[in-house]
Amino acid sequence: MGPGDPREQHPRGQLTLNEAERFAAMMEDGAALRRRMAAECTPAVLAVVAACERSLRAGGKLLFCGNGGSAADAQHLATELLVRLRSRVERPSWPAIALTLDPAALTAGGNDYGFEEVFARPLQGLGRAGDVLFGITTSGRSPNVLRALETARGMGLVTVGFLGGDGGPARALCDHALVVPSTETARVQEVHIALGHAVLELLEDRLVGGGMGQGAP
Questions:
Q1: Which of 101, 105, 110, 141 could share a disulfide with 168, CB 3.0–4.6 Å?
Q2: CATH of the domain at 102
């Protein structure tokens, strides 16, 4: 490896990808996953959109939960329903709750009932039959998301999973499972937010076009 060679030296002496190659590989991996989801998951996505539409038209709401980056995605998606998704579409605020938002409730739940219950416990008070719960977990194995999905099913909510890998045990608890076929957390999270945006955009089109809001001219 000559002076200035941007490739990294592996401890055993082998040359590894340089940063430019690694960056290109990351982008291509994410794009390939999106293409695969588009090819294989369209019916499942449209089923999720239909479930959300039925819930909101009946006076229900959408709830979201996840940990870490998935907690941020839960808040992101709920906010786009409560406030705005697309600046060119003017419509009412629609009911959505991120179960990750309240530090007092999260810490009280963890302290009093254990971390596995931090989403399930408030869901018992906030959720109603016919609502939709989105459980977001890149592994499909997050114990508190599993408990929330289990609790939601027992209460008559529709359960949606944004999952990764093989879906893990969460898959069996979801009425609708959107599984990103990757174990690379960052790539799964990137596709999860793309899926969330797609679901909400399609949902917004249906509701605005069907009398629950008014599109901008």
A1: 141
A2: 3.40.50.10490
